[in-house]
Design brief:
The protein is an alpha/beta fold. The strands form seven sheets. Strands 1, 4, 5, 6, 7, 8, 9, 10 and 11 form a nine-stranded mixed beta sheet that branches. Strands 12, 13, 14, 15, 16, 17, 25, 26 and 29 form a nine-stranded mixed beta sheet that branches. Strand 10 (about 180-185) and strand 11 (about 190-195) form a beta hairpin. Helix 11 runs antiparallel to helix 12 and helix 15 packs antiparallel against helix 16. The longest helix has 17 residues, at about 205-220. The relative contact order is 0.12. It binds oxalic acid and manganese (II) ion (MN).
């Protein structure tokens, strides 16, 4: 049944190791989906949500200890520890295989082993890559068929080549003690056991499209980034594509499919999480979205914050760890209307409105085909991808970073990305709200030494004769009263407008030590009612705060020793100088 020899050999190897009852090679068909759903309804791993209001949609409740990415159990397994760098957990490949082989041994006894060929990227694109995930979870298969172009289409793209990414996944016994997510960039292999959670188990996403692909992209001269891709069209019909990197659960999905508050402006969505970028013949960076679906954070998503996401989840969706209303509809904090009086919470317990408890898990998710989203266009399938005019870095910062600034040039932009700091969120286990360095929002996702990664960014800037302009935004700045200063959501178009006006040479900016900040009159704040009082706080670059920031940057950059490109130290020194002059 499997014609590709390398694939067939690997499947036999895994079968001998994991000892499943049966092997199913997935073709991506509707009939296959129906079979998997029926089976999952029968064994209780899926429940159907109200088919009248949410047709073709299902609900999955995960183990309560398996609800987010587990970064402390995620490893880069390359031969030399230094090649993983100071920001990754490292395990020697032999040690990883020795540790995980006994866990995989017989792990699929009594279970079905699914072989899931998938294509990351549009059909026919030179940027696209094939992976195969072997898993014992039907929930994983159902999610992979939404998140990737799965089945026959991937088998066709692979042909008889052997260079596919090999991902082996088993839920094992779901125990965090026996949970490991191991990446072998040198052999483009992933071994993940003990978790069924999205980022740990849907191996096409973070494991392949970011960790393995970042290392592969460096070797082959392209980039894999934790970025949304959007198209912004002005009332005059001028379109710019923008790629933006934000840490997990900082509003990437919201920005990617925003409904602009300014009349006549339009946002189209190419991707909401991952971008693969290469240099085009025209010297620009061109981006594809390797994914075909969205795995979005549910809480906080409502018709006011993200109407396009709300439209997307109305059919053909898989909900994970949300709450269910008495009429069997999904519900989460921040959804429209009043909370229900009663519900079943994400753990299946009765919940009441006044309880003070959260009904949905803060990292509960929806999985939907990208094409469900009203703002997604045919761009998502364009084999060439789209040309990028601007790259945006963004973090969740109460202080320090102004609403927006432009970097002085590409090299300074790389420094801005490399020194990004953001407060942690519920997307990963651990404390929430703690500031941490998250370079290019790739801290948990870079498959090699980040010192070398910064070097790769600098090299890509040299390779591109017409690179995008680089900006930094912060929607989360608070005022003296501790409240957010910026309304965010649809009003973020005002910042995007300023960015495209800068590209076109139309908007003014003021030089500050950190970069170019809008002059108050260059930002379109019409109808916003935010003026003289808040604006200075939003755009302020406070020298004392940034001098403290310099020290944090120094401590972080020092970690990379001689793997840090000297250009970043020059940028650090230049910032120091600008701050003291
Ligand atoms: C995600 C994440 O799921 O970044 O996209 O955690
Ligand atoms: Mn993400």
């Amino acid at each position: 049944m499997i014609k590709n020899e390398a694939l067939s050999r690997w499947v036999e190897e895994v079968k001998a190791l994991c000892e499943p009852d049966q092997v199913v090679v997935c073709d991506g068909s509707e009939a296959e989906r129906d079979r998997l759903i029926e089976l999952s309804l029968r064994d209780g791993s899926l429940l159907q949500v109200n088919p009248a209001t949410y047709p073709n949609s299902y609900f999955h409740r995960s183990s309560p200890t398996d609800v987010a990415r587990t970064e402390h159990l995620t490893f880069i397994c390359c031969e030399k520890k230094d090649d993983a760098g100071p920001t990754n957990n490292w395990m020697a490949p032999d040690d990883a295989r020795a540790k995980l082989t006994p866990l995989f041994k017989g792990a699929m006894k009594g279970r079905t082993m699914y072989v899931v060929p998938y294509l990351m990227g549009p059909v026919g694109s030179p940027s696209s890559r094939v992976g195969v995930e072997i898993t014992d979870s039907a929930y994983v298969v159902l999610n992979m068929r939404v998140m990737t172009r799965m089945g026959a289409v991937a088998v066709d793209a692979l042909g008889d080549r052997a260079d596919f990414v090999r991902g082996l996944h088993s839920t094992g016994d779901l125990s965090p003690e026996r949970r490991f997510i191991c990446h072998f960039p040198e052999t483009r292999t992933i071994w993940s056991i003990g978790s069924g959670y999205g980022g740990n188990a849907l191996l096409g996403k973070k494991c392949h499209a970011l960790r393995i692909a970042s290392a592969q992209g460096r070797a082959e001269g392209w980039m894999a980034e934790h970025m949304l891709i959007l198209g912004l069209t002005s009332p005059a019909g001028e379109t710019h594509y923008i790629a933006a990197a934000f840490p997990s659960a900082c509003g990437k999905t919201n920005l990617a499919m925003m409904v602009p508050s300014l009349p006549g402006w339009k946002v189209t969505t190419v991707g909401d999480d991952i971008a693969w970028l290469r240099v085009g013949d025209d010297g620009r960076l061109w981006a594809i979205n390797p994914e075909a679906g969205m795995f979005g954070v549910a809480p906080g998503t409502g018709s006011k914050t993200n109407p396009n996401a709300m439209a997307s989840v109305k059919h053909d969706a898989i909900f994970t760890n949300v709450a269910l209303t008495p009429s069997n509809e999904p519900w989460w904090e921040g959804m429209d209307g009043d909370p229900p009086e009663t519900a079943t919470d994400w753990q299946g317990r009765p919940w009441t409105r006044g309880s003070g408890e959260k009904a949905a898990h803060p990292n509960s998710r929806f999985t939907v085909p990208a094409k469900n989203c009203p703002s997604v266009t045919a761009d998502i399938d364009a084999p060439s991808g789209v040309p990028i005019s601007a790259i945006i870095f963004g973090g969740r910062r109460a202080k320090a970073a102004p609403l927006v600034f432009e970097s002085l040039d590409w090299q300074h932009g790389v420094f801005v990305g490399a020194t990004m700091v953001s407060e942690t969120t519920a997307a990963a286990t651990g404390a929430v709200g703690v500031p941490r360095n998250d370079p290019m929002a790739m801290l948990p996702f870079c498959g090699y030494n980040m010192g070398d990664y910064f070097g790769h960014w600098l090299a890509m800037g040299k390779k591109a004769s017409n690179p995008p302009k680089v900006f930094h935004v912060n929607w989360f700045r608070t005022g003296p009263d501790g409240k957010f200063l910026w309304p965010g959501f649809g009003d973020n178009v005002r910042v995007l407008k300023w960015i495209t006006d800068r590209i076109a040479g139309r908007a003014e900016a003021k030089r500050t030590p950190v970069g170019l900040v809008p002059t108050p009159s260059s930002l379109d704040l019409s109808g916003l009612g935010i003026g003289d009082e808040k604006l200075p706080h939003l755009l302020d670059v406070d020298a004392a705060t940034w001098k403290a920031e310099l020290e944090l940057q120094r401590a972080f950059l020092t970690k990379f020793g001689d793997r840090l490109p000297k250009e970043l130290w020059s940028e650090h020194a230049a910032l120091e100088q600008r701050l003291s002059s």
